[in-house]
């Protein structure tokens, strides 16, 4: 038996309530509305060593240290406005450049999203955000489709922000989308300042993913797909 609301849950006898909590915490059966959607992923290669914890149902708390300050700022914005909780500790070969670190964090964050979504029952699936940041206007739209792909059309007037090579933002989103199994569109409509445009892109992606990953209690046991799989 599964309670559909927190009130129903409180009414259950202790023994049954404990069984429901056990089921909710079972990493295989993440279908209960109160299921825990927090995962930890670690990945080490010769180029990077990354530890990451993601909670899809957080409050926007970020604790990000990648050794690439502008990228930390972007992940912080993504997390805060996506209302996730995210801890990232990445040690990469930044003495070469930031490429491996940024791409590999994208891989691990994508894997974490995929795992935290579990069997995807009850998720809203689609999300989008049109985000304004001063003169910059950026759209992010996402489908948790099971088919990882990025469609990216972001015009940046300058290629370097501080010491950050802005072309790495696309590498990050490619790695993220393909490993999370999501279709992600990011498109800029206006903007003169590359810092604003990229920050708007990360915030928009966070907000779109926040919407798409929500559990809708009206369809808590269902997969939002006519194919019966995602
Ligand atoms: Mn900023």
Describe the structure.
Helices cover 37% and strands 26% of the residues. With 230 residues, the chain is of the alpha+beta class. It has two domains: 6-34, no CATH class; 38-213, Imidazole glycerol phosphate dehydratase, domain 1 (Ribosomal Protein S5, domain 2). The strands form three sheets. The chain has a four-stranded mixed beta sheet with strand order 1-2-4-3, covered by helices on one side. Strands 5-6-10-7 form a four-stranded mixed beta sheet. Helix 3 runs parallel beside helix 6 and helix 4 (99-116) runs parallel beside helix 5. The longest helix is centred in the last third of the chain and has 20 residues, at 194-213. The two termini are 25 Å apart. Manganese (II) ion (MN) binds at residues 73, 195, 199.
SSE layout and pairings?
Elements: H1 6-11, H2 14-25, E1 38-44, E2 48-55, E3 62-65, H3 69-82, E4 85-92, H4 99-116, E5 126-133, E6 136-143, E7 149-153, E8 160-161, E9 164-165, H5 167-180, E10 183-190, H6 194-213
Parallel strand pairs: 3-4, 7-10
Antiparallel strand pairs: 1-2, 2-4, 5-6, 6-10, 8-9
Helix pairs in contact: 3-6, 4-5
This protein binds manganese (II) ion.
The site of manganese (II) ion has 3 residues, from α6.
